[in-house]
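Usage

Read records sequentially. Each one opens with the input sequence:
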Amino acid sequence: MLAAELIRSKRDGGELSAEEIRFLVSGITDGSVSDAQVGALAMAIVWRGMSKDERVALTGAMRDSGDVLEWDGDRILDKHSTGGVGDKVSLLLAPIVAACGGQVPMISGRGLGHTGGTLDKLQSIPGYDVAPGNAKLRAAVASAGCAIIGQTGDLAPADRRLYAIRDATGTVESIPLIVASILSKKLAAGLSALVMDVKVGSGAFLPDRSSAQELARAIVEVAQGNGLPTSAHPEGTWWTFFNDPQHPELNNTHKIDFFADNTDPRYVFIPNFNAGFFLTASTPSSANCTT
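and closes with the structure output:
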């Protein structure tokens, strides 16, 4: 197989087989597919989309591009946000879930486009190791019940490279690529349950509700296709509306300081891991939740 021929096929509206997708993901991982080709593939996917089978195959291949963690117990839980300016939910939610008896190996990401990333905020803390090895991750989860880290070279390395190229090539807003990026990391973490916080509004990279709803449904479909039980509210999902700023601070260090000094538990809603999705309120004015 030739990467250029497969990219051309997708560009022209063809459907890639699981074997062809595994070939491309392997090349993304080992560098045999160039940056230019990865960018061209991402743009072809943005332009032509992917079928359900392609999405499931892409996510599974990206998961299998590195290690897949195994844990003792069945309460390996996580939350993931689709991204929004000033989002800080993970910083509070991970220790709350750990305090309730869950184990939270949270593999987080950096900002995409104009949105903020949890990892960027944590890296503003002097001495915080955002890329520990698997052994250090396991030790942190065993000791504290939770750990928030970035992708290491061992976990979903194909996504790590594709993630950076998407941000540089204007191919962030693609449902298949967003789903594969989110779920490849979560599947590699060995989760038993996952909730999604779907951001929508001018502060998110999905500004309209219909796109966010499509993303939520695609995540459920692909997660189930790869063996991770996930469900959504029967009418679609709950939302975090991101048209309002969450706080007045600008850079990552100030966001961490503001979070530590001003967290108000009245505006934090605990996820239902059976339902699959949850809502957080970004400001009192936007706190509109249905339970």
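Summary fields computed downstream for this record:
- Residues 233-238, 252-256, 265-291 have pLDDT under 50 and may be disordered.
- Strands lie at 77-81, 104-107, 146-149, 193-197, 199-200, 240-241.
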